[in-house]
Structure formats: C-alpha cells, structure tokens
Specification:
The protein is an alpha/beta fold. It is 43% helix and 14% strand. It has helices spanning 26-35, 54-63, 80-99, 120-123, 137-156, 174-183, 195-200, 205-211, 226-234, 239-244, 258-267, 288-308; strands at 4-8, 40-42, 67-75, 111-116, 160-163, 190-194, 216-221, 272-276. An eight-stranded parallel β-barrel has the order 1-2-3-4-5-6-7-8, surrounded by four helices. Helix 3 links the parallel strand 3 (67-75) and strand 4. Helix 3 packs parallel to helix 5 (137-156), helix 8 (205-211) packs parallel to helix 11 (258-267) and helix 11 packs across helix 12 (288-308). The longest helix has 21 residues, at 288-308. The protein is globular. The two termini are 13 Å apart.
C-alpha cells in the first residue's frame, strides 16, 4: 500500500547508546537497511549519527535513497536541570531534522519523538500497573511543561513533535497516558504509539490505537516472545534487560495480534511509516537482516490482504 511504508531504527541492530566499539558503524547500518529496500530510518540515540556534520550525513542518506523519519529525545523529562542540559542538543537535532524533510508528499514528517525515561524508581516495576510509582500532581505538571517546551523547539524548526508512551517512564500505563493527553488537549502535540510498549504495560494495542485514533500520528511496531515476556514481568526485569534476553522477535513470530493491529490501523485511515523495532544486545546485531526481511514480508502480506477486502 502506497500510503503505508516500512521503516526501522538503529535499535534493531543493537544500537542502544550513542557510541561503543561493539556497535555497528552508522554507515554500515545504512548500507544494510538500503540492501533490505527499507525506505526510512530513525536516527537512534542522540550522538550515534554525527548530525553536526549535516551535509555529509544527508548525502549518505540521499545516495542510498533512505528517508529520515524521526529523531528522539529519550531522557528524564521530569528533571528541570536535565531538560535544561538537553536544550542545546535538542535544538541542534530539530535543526537537522528540518533539513531532512521527506520529499514524499504522501508521507508526513520528520518527527521528534519525545520519551520520558531513566527513573531508577520505576525500572523494577516495568509493566506492573499496581506496583509502579506515579508522579504527584506538581511533578506531572512539570513533566508536561517540559514536553511542551521541547515540542516548541521542534515546531519552531518545522518538525512534528510526538509523545511516545514508554515502559519505565512516567507515561507508561493507561491512566498516565490519559492524564498527559488531557494536559496537551489544547496543543498540536500528538502521539507515537508503540505496539510493544502498550502490550508490555498491560494494554491491548488495538484498543489503544482505537481510543486515541485522532491523536495517532506515527506507529512503532514490535513483537514479543511470550515466554520471555512472562518471565521478565515475573522477575521484574528492566525492559532492555528483557530485550537482551530475547524478548523481541520478528513481527508475526510473537504473541502480538498483528492481523487485528493492521486491520485497526487501516480502519482509522492511518498513513505513514510503520517503524519496525526489534531491540537486542549489540552482540546480536547480525540477526537484524533476517528479522527485518521476515517482518517486512509478513507485514506486506497483511497490508495487501486487507487492501483487497
């Protein structure tokens, strides 16, 4: 379907930090994505792709026919001090994204994905609605103020800001998502929903997509090995620890109901990228090629089947 395209992100190749000798080089990452005929990628952790050298980076993307879909702010967004430290880097990221606008008229973007994460007190209760701590009213208001500040940096640069509910942060569970949605109701900020994070937090991705259909701008997709998921919840594993233990798998080979998810996205007239994320440890990045090929074939089958109904 021409109005839905597939993309991926560096995390599928085990990139979980800006730098490290064990990480795949960013140009090698682009080469492998290009070979798979995937037309869009996210930038990954700030610092992984050297956007300070914008001309060089944009040329490398252009020569491979790859579009830049999004950049990400992934940090403690409750802390005023931390947000102040991040402002300059976020502004630089937004300036770069504004130069990388996709030239496909039917596809929106680029996006600035805003994720609250990095709170020690929440890491051992990921996915556990009853035990997970919640922000008090003042802290929640401060979180939303910081999100709005970051969103304005994006909008001023012509970039679309999106909130990404993420396990381990303070926008994880259904009550937290709803509270934030109510706060931003008078802004232009919309949502990037992630099927894996909604599932991990005890929600049905189909219901979340339906409930927030007017706010859904962009979708991340994951699939989980059920046994690893249940074990991780039971043992209170941190999300990326669970990923290193084999939580994620090729789309269609896990426990998420993708026939229903794709059907729901088409029912709400979703258009844009579906970004495949198969997080893993850096040591296992070579699995990504097979997993992305399998995921792409499966998703295209679902999209083509539903388009004929």
């Amino acid at each position: 379907m021409e109005n839905i395209l597939l993309a991926t992100a560096p995390c599928t190749f085990g990139v979980d930090r800006p730098s490290g000798s064990e990480l795949i080089n960013w140009i090698d990452f682009l080469d492998r994505v290009s070979e798979l005929k995937i037309g869009g990628v996210e930038l990954g952790p700030m610092g992984y792709i050297p956007i300070s050298n914008a001309e060089w980076v944009l040329d490398e993307f252009s020569m491979r026919g790859i579009h830049i879909v999004a950049g990400t702010v992934f940090d403690d967004l409750v802390s005023r001090a931390r947000v102040n430290e991040l402002k300059e880097d976020i502004a630089q990221l937004c300036k770069f994204l504004s130069r990388a606008k996709c030239n496909l008229k039917t596809i929106k973007g680029p996006y600035l994905i805003i994720i609250d994460w990095g709170h020690k007190e929440g890491r051992s209760t990921i996915g556990n609605y009853r035990l997970a701590p919640r922000l008090d009213r003042d802290s929640l208001r401060q979180l939303v103020e910081h999100i709005c500040l970051i969103a304005k940096l994006a909008e001023d640069a012509g970039v679309i800001p999106l909130i990404h509910p993420h396990v381990g942060g303070y926008i994880e569970f259904h009550d937290e998502i709803q509270e934030v949605v109510e706060y931003i109701s008078k802004t232009n900020i919309k949502l990037c929903l992630d099927t894996g994070h909604t599932f991990y937090a005890g929600m049905n991705p189909v219901n979340v997509i339906s409930n927030y259909s007017e706010l859904v701008e962009y979708i991340h997709i994951k699939d989980f090995n059920l046994g690893v998921y249940l074990s991780s919840i039971r043992k209170n594993h941190e999300f990326f620890e669970a990923c290193a233990n084999g939580l994620t798998c090729a789309i269609g080979q896990g426990c998420l109901d993708y026939p229903s998810i794709i059907k729901t996205l088409l029912e709400i007239n979703y258009s844009g990228y579906l970004t495949i994320e198969i997080e893993k440890s850096p040591a296992h990045w070579r699995q990504a090629t097979f997993q992305l090929t399998s995921s792409g074939d499966y998703l295209n089958q679902l999209l083509n089947y539903n388009s004929r109904i």
